[in-house]
Amino acid sequence: QERYFPAALASTRVYDHTAGNATLALGIDQEELEQLLWFFRSEDSSTWNYSVLALSFMAMILGLFLLAINIVRNRRRKIDAYREAVETTQQAELEVKQSLMPVQEYSPAELQKQEPVLQDQRPGDVMVQWKDGTVTSLYT
Fold first, then answer.
1. Considering only CA atoms, which of 29, 20, 27 is closest in space to residue 4?
2. Which of 133, 94, 33 is nearest to 24 (CA)?
3. pLDDT for 21
4. Which pLDDT value is given to residue 129?
5. Three-state SS sequence of 79-104
6. Could you tell me which residues come within 8 angstroms of residue 22 by beta carbon, excluding any fewer than 6 positions away?
7. What is the 3-state secondary structure (H, E, C) of 1-61?
8. N or C: which end of the chain has fewer CB within 10 A?
9. If the chain, 140 residues long, is cut into consecutive pieces of 10 residues, what is the mean pLDDT of each piece?
């Protein structure tokens, strides 16, 4: 009977070589086998279609969720890298400025002495302090 099993699914009758006539395989009568074959041929596939549709919708939602997480992490990584680059640049500039300029400590009294005291300034008048310390008006 093992050699007739695949044939039973394809056809309702199998040829028996020993008997020389058509017999039914697996001991199922003709009407029951035709009814089973009709059931499997005409099965309503709407439940399968709806389940595949639901699974594809869930897969799309999961994909969009993972995409959003990836976008947020990449954005955060780029912002962190930018902040780090700005901090290292500012630190490097500060080190260069400190290495070029001699460190001097001033008291607030000395700072007030160094600031030019101008008596005859008018609104809109531009005053220039030169390197030698003299202060002149840009427009005479």
1. 27
2. 33
3. 39
4. 86
5. HHHHHHHHHHHHHHHHHHHHHHCCCC
6. 13, 14, 15, 16
7. CHHHHHHHHHCCCEECCCCCCEECCCCCCHHHHHHHHHHHHCCCCHHHHHHHHHHHHHHHH
8. C
9. 50 50 63 78 80 97 98 96 94 84 59 55 78 82
